[in-house]
Amino acid sequence: MNDTIFLNGMQFYAYHGALPAENDIGQIFKVDVTLKVDLAEAGESDEVTDTVHYGEVFEDVKEIMEGPPCNLIEHLAERIAKRINSHYNRVMETKVRITKENPPIPGYYDGVGIEIVRENR
């Protein structure tokens, strides 16, 4: 089964990071979430109750990203995956990608970040 729901390019201004400058100044974080979900029932019924409401998922991600600062984006991603997997029983797997486009490190790049995949058990 290869059905997915995705929320790409969500952006949040927050103060996460291991460096003091990140906690003081803050920065924009880009978050992508992909949910592995069987969408056949929703495709037949046309009922939102037969799928995962991506507006609610957005609010879950926003609450975590704009919440208390964390040192590591790995921790943020883990919290997001756990929240989704515990709140939406239709989700079989959650992929979370967090990108910092302008971290306070020298060099030229499009961004740095992490991606995790967690099964819903």
Explain what you see.
The protein has 121 residues and is α+β, with helices and mostly antiparallel strands. The chain has a single domain (4-119), classed as GTP cyclohydrolase I, C-terminal domain/NADPH-dependent 7-cyano-7-deazaguanine reductase, N-terminal domain (GTP Cyclohydrolase I, domain 2). The chain is built from 4 helices and 4 strands, in the order βαβαααββ. Helix 3 runs antiparallel to helix 4. The two termini are 17 Å apart. The model has no long low-confidence stretch (mean pLDDT 95).
What's this, in brief?
The chain is an alpha+beta fold and 121 residues long. The protein has helices at residues 20-25, 40-45, 54-65, 73-87, and strands spanning 4-14, 27-37, 91-100, 112-119.
- Strand fraction equals 25-35%
Q: Strands of the largest sheet, in order across it? A: 1-2-3-4
Count structural domains: 1
What structural class results from the helix and strand content? alpha+beta
Intertermini distance = 17 Å
Fourth CATH level, the homologous superfamily: GTP cyclohydrolase I, C-terminal domain/NADPH-dependent 7-cyano-7-deazaguanine reductase, N-terminal domain
Biggest sheet features: 4 strands, antiparallel
Categorize the overall geometry: elongated
Which architecture name does CATH use?
2-Layer Sandwich
